Each structure stands twice: as structure tokens, then as C-alpha cells.
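Morning run. Coffee first, then this:
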Amino acid sequence: MFTGIITGVGRIGAVHDLGSSSQHGKRITVEVPAGYLDDVGLGDSIALNGACMTVTTVDAARRSFTFDVSAESLDKTSGLAEPGPVNLEKALRAHDRLGGHIVSGHVDGIGTVTRFAPVGESHELRILAPAALAKYLAYKGSVTVNGVSLTVNSVRDTGQGCELSINLIPHTLENTALHALHDGARVNLEIDLIARYVERMLGEGVTAARVAA
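And here it is:
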């Protein structure tokens, strides 16, 4: 479990194939800031751009760790198989503050940046989300973009999906990898966990009789 509050910005430094076919995944090496791995061990969970991954090796001296990602996960996420900056968040501990919102680290869909431009001291980030996620996105609701907990400023349904607008303050841009976004970039999206449960409870076919059974 995570909160969407980024604890460090790393960089994918190397990508190695785990096999020769499209059904094989990849082994990813991530370079991290000094001291980031001091409390990280084998088997720990770290979210990379919002996708929860398991640490398979730790090299504190070289300030790097590796994880293996399956072909299925690569197909359902963006930005995990090529060199570049990535947002990092260590798994939530029981005594930590919940500074963002409850995040599972499971990517629900891939969005496309339609606008990333300065507005005053901040930046406006517009993302076209898949139509299937539209019902979970609401004004002043929460959404996770590449692992960052953000507040939705507006939503607009279109023929291509649902366009949401987000305001990014300077602090967010300085302390995450979102500053590297650009028009046309693909981003990992995770909807609010509470919205998911509300939809399930109110959805068609879920009746008291079925629950009792």
C-alpha cells in the first residue's frame, strides 16, 4: 500500500531481456539518490511511476536496485522499459502519515498528456484517460499519475475518453519526475480506491440476495 507521496526520483539505467520471446519480461536496474536504499531489503515493495514492484537485488555501493517485470505488466503500464527518470515510493508503514490518498500501486489504465504548459507559477496538466475510467474521475477527486497523488480540477467527457485537468505546483515539479512530461507522453493512472468500491457496491447485479448467498 502507498500514499502517492513520492519519496525519491530515480532513473532507469539498464533494461535486460529475461528471454527471447514477447512472452518474456525484463530485468530493470534503477539508479537512486544517495541513502535511498539504507532501509530497503530484498523482497521489499517499491512503486515505480505508480506500479508496485518487488526488489530483487540491492547494490547500496552503486546506489541501485533491480526488479523483474513481466510481459503482462509491461503491456499494462508505461515508462518501465526504457531509460529515464521515474518516481519512487516505498511501501507505506503502519506508523506513517497518509499524506496523499490510499494507493494500491496497481495501474488501472494508461493516459495521454494533451497539454502541459505553465499557468502563472504553476503548470496545467491535461490528460486524456481511457473511457472506461471516466466514471471514477470527479471534480476535486483524487487520481494517481505516474505514482503521484493529485487532485482533479476538472473533467470533460469526449468521444475519445475523459480529459482531466490538474494543477501542478512548483514543489511537485521540483520533487517528482512529472517535470519531464510533454504533450503526447503516456502516463500510468490509478483511480481512487474508494471510488472502485463504491462502484462495486452500487453496480448492477449486486443485490442483497447475492451477498447473503
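The chain has two domains: 8-90, 109-200. Good start to the day.
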